[in-house]
Amino acid sequence: MPAPTFLEPWQLRAAFARSLSDMYGKEVPAYTTLLDVSHEVNADFVAQHGADAERLGSIARVTAERHGAIRVGTPTEMSQVARIFGAMGMHPVGFYDLRDASSSSVPVISTAFRPIERAELARNPFRVFTSMLVPADRRFFTADLERRLESFLAARTLFGPELLALADRAEAEGGLPEDQAAEFLRLATEAFELSREPVDQAWYRELEGVSAVAADIGGIASTHINHLTPRVLDIDDLYARMEARGITMIDAIQGPPRWEGPDVLLRQTSFRALAEPRTFRTADGEIVSDSLRVRFGEVEARGIALTREGRAAYDSAVIEIDEAAAAARADDSGFNEAQRQELARGVWQKTFPTTEAALADQGLGWFTYEVDPGGTGGVRREPVVYEDFLPRSAAGIFQSNLTSDGAKDASQEGTDRDADWMAGALGRALFDPFDLYADQVARSLTGAAETLGVDPATLTTTTGALR
Ligand code: OOG
Ligand code: NI
What we know:
Order of helices and strands: EHHHEHEEHEHHEHEHHEHEEHHHEEHHHE
Radius of gyration: 23 Å
Helix content: 40-55%
Number of domains: 2
Mean pLDDT: 92
Shape: globular
Bound molecules: 2-oxoadipic acid, nickel (II) ion
CATH class of the largest domain: Alpha Beta
Strand content: 15-25%
Number of helices: 17
CATH superfamily of the largest domain: Uncharacterised protein PF07063, DUF1338
């Protein structure tokens, strides 16, 4: 196929995801192992389950699917990230406050850049979880440290003027001619490469005392991709195969437990950050070699998107599991992860129905309306895949990979940050994930009714797979 002479946003997005993946594979060889194992898991799953395996995304989509994670320091940097991803048809969706979601010191708030249209997601669903530091939060930073952090961050340039100009042009003109596209992709990839510049040791260590995440963001003059996550169709299988290869995974799979009913939302796990060589500049100007452990390998499995009601049920189930697990641990210090999973399954059985049809009927999950290809005039409901993240799991992922818990002074008042504040920092609209799912469902209903020439209210449905 000849290379396109003009690249549209989705083509820039797909090419950027590939280019970042190639770069990250060179930087973190264990990521390549993770990709190999993911491909094996997905191929075996499709071989076993046939067409059913692709109900939450075609195998082509799932094979190419990645999410990245990046971290920045200031609203200016955040707005620049928004311009770069805007060029690729990726928009900020959701507000995540991780400061309260974890017992250790994670002083960030986040959003995720992703495509928002169904057709765009199908072309390439690349998404990037993007966190920014909150230096004004007194639970983590003193006024003095905030001031020094702000001046350090203000003095650095993460994204050069040429990259930003190309991004703006791509967004304004709906893409870029191929030579400019190549330059844009090169500069965008380079912006997330691990820097070889010596790190100011005293500054880095001071921030690390507060939070390893703060040091990773504000202790160095550049940024980098923290992880790049493939999607698998069976995460329990992936976990077992990685351990069999001698790669130690974190203790748990975050998110819903494995159970007999429909998979919802997102399950994630990871392996520990790998020590990477870095150079430091000591207080007396000497350059020394050391290593840092900040990056890690993560993998995810995606399930059905939940409605606000479904999500509320999920959130209370998580709290119930936590409380029951804490009580069990108080009784028996040997209470382990397998027992916690068993307990979680019990809570799930009380909380969620075991069939997709019931999940749809009870208004807990999102389903689109598709005209039955059988020509019966009937309409089927098909599950909508969850395209977003979970704050608790995200905090858990951050936390399980930190070398220390850092320091958090819970007696101090936290700084208010919310979705509106984030939209202000981004300089553009922040989408609400529930609105996007509701929209997608409403449009499918109108579309199906139009195809059949009937009033949407009269449509009767069955659910695609009555499991
Ligand atoms: C982001 C952690 C959150 C996820 O998948 O929930 C995340 C980070 O480590 O920067 O990526
Ligand atoms: Ni992640």
